[in-house]
Amino acid sequence: MKIVKINEDNCIYCHLCEVACIVEHSQSKDIIKAFKKEERPIARCSVEFNYPLSLSIMCRHCDDAPCMEACQNGAMHRDERGYVTVDSNKCVGCWMCVMACPYGVIKRDTRREVWGLSTKCDACPDRKIPACVEACPNNALTFEEI
Amino acid sequence: MKIVIIGNSVAGINAVEAIREKDKISDIRVISDEQTRAYSHPLLPNFVVGDVSRAEERFYYRHRAFYEKNNVKTILGKSVVKVFPKNKYVQLNNEEKVEYDKLLIACGGKPIIPKMQGVELEGVHTLTNIKSADRLKSELSDIKSCVVVGGGLIGSKTAEKLAKKGIKVTLVELMKRVLFPVLDDTGADYIHKELKNLGVKLILEDSVVELKGDKKVKEVVLSSGKKIETDSVVVAVGVRPNLDFVSDSDIETNKGILVNDYMQTNIDTIYAAGDVVEAYDIVIAQKRPIPILPLAARQGRIAGLNIIDSNIKYKGGFPTNSITIGKTSFISMGIVDSDEFEVLQIQNGNEYRKFLIDDNKLVGAILVGNIEKAGMFNWMIQNKFDVSWIKDTFLNSDFGWKYFNKAFRVLRLDRKIK
């Protein structure tokens, strides 16, 4: 199974992966609307910086995913492609997946009225190559078998 | 092969999934005294106040089609009276016998009811299964006030939820703070404030000795002599392994069912997993019951794999907890309050971070407010990771992969080290 490989030596801290991720997970998939008009999605990847290092990090889609094990109602599940994804209609925002994720890549969306929503990389189900990989200008992110 | 699973919740369901990954033909029967398909126990306080109902998928642990899809026969609404290991069958309360080749006991825990007079009165509740939740929910519209006994995870969440419904809630906790084993004083103070903001009256270092009333509870008497008028009580002082039908069998127990590293009991055809067992705690280096959901899932999965002839070891676990009360979220894990270890801590407004380190191994952590990298610490505890070169960065609120040594980071992120 392919996942996003992180090639930190190539990263130039441009944040284009985050921009592309936000657009891809927006309602309209339009960059202007996603950033200016609609409720802006949370980027599933995060760029970290500690001079001279920078790198973008997102879900590693573990085989034995601790987040799925910790999920109280099966909202965190493996989809038919084999990627670990959140069912937003089920997630109750208990953050047990956050407590379990060994990579620290699950974010909290607390903007819903009743239930929080765990937010993480879903390997872009509508695309052949994830948006962050396509947006990366110099192969700091590549889509590969790991 | 005939596989019988006693218990239809997290450990049992994960065992089913593990078995079916490799074995599509064995006969699997799940026995439960409850009538519903597996549901989310942590959602019970939400269920009581109506945040979630039986009509919503969100309430359930697995989809409606789970049992059919996995070819599992369910025997619901029946309880197990006794296990007969020599003849390999379990006897149900309707005299029915269910034979097995391999048995998994995953019947969970039951509420601890402290010794006090009057617990049998009407209006006195527990909240550990759907039956008790239904009962509390059905009386909710008549409840004006409630005394919650016990400030653990269920007690604190219940107090929060009832208070938000406009019920006058008093929370009585024996220890000097709520969430005693999972938070320290500083961490618990955040929760105290949240509960007080919601109108919950906190009574600490006190306990309930008597519940008074004719037929229905009217008053709660504390050991300090204080009296609280109330029309309902929720007893939430914790759960213990449900050993009802194993205590007079040959299955070895202590506080819970004793299992080896393969989740196997002293009888080699019988396995046990989840809140009913006493498994290895890697932080305190001894066996004890740790009734938390992620460990029930892991143990159930391992038991399931070993039932169908794998040889997978349970490496041990430790307590991990995540809860949000009011606006404050916290995650804690391992040992959270001790003078015996190196302690790193920082408090900054709504954020609190604390780490306990024993000989350069992380043994516990508390994160309040900023919880998002919590799982990285969980990994370090589980793997007894040498933190000597990274611990200086733990208190940074932007803690992350950028602080790790490059070679290690690349190996981890490429999934070369698990």
General description of the model:
Chain A is of the alpha+beta class. Chain A has 2 domains: 1-58 and 125-146, no CATH class; 63-120, Alpha-Beta Plaits (2-Layer Sandwich). Chain A has 5 helices and 8 strands; from the N terminus they run E-H-H-E-E-H-E-E-H-E-E-H-E. Chain A has helices at 16-24, 31-37, 66-70, 96-100, 131-135; strands spanning 2-6, 46-50, 53-57, 76-78, 84-86, 107-109, 117-119, 141-145. Chain A is globular and about 40 Å long. Chain B folds into 3 domains: 2-41 and 61-110 and 239-307, FAD/NAD(P)-binding domain (3-Layer(bba) Sandwich); 124-235, FAD/NAD(P)-binding domain (3-Layer(bba) Sandwich), CATH 3.50.50.60; 330-413, FAD/NAD-linked reductase, C-terminal dimerisation domain (Enolase-like, domain 1), CATH 3.30.390.30. Chain B has a 5-stranded parallel β-sheet with strand order 3-2-1-7-19. A 5-stranded parallel β-sheet of chain B has the order 9-16-10-11-12.
CATH class of the largest domain in chain B: Alpha Beta
Strand/helix succession of chain A: EHHEEHEEHEEHE
Terminal-residue CA separation of chain B: 33 Å
Low-confidence sequence ranges of chain B: none
Unreliable parts of chain A: none
Rg calculated over all Cα atoms of chain A: 15 Å
Overall pLDDT confidence of chain B: 97
Strand order of the biggest β-sheet of chain A: 1-8
Total strands of chain B: the figure is: 26
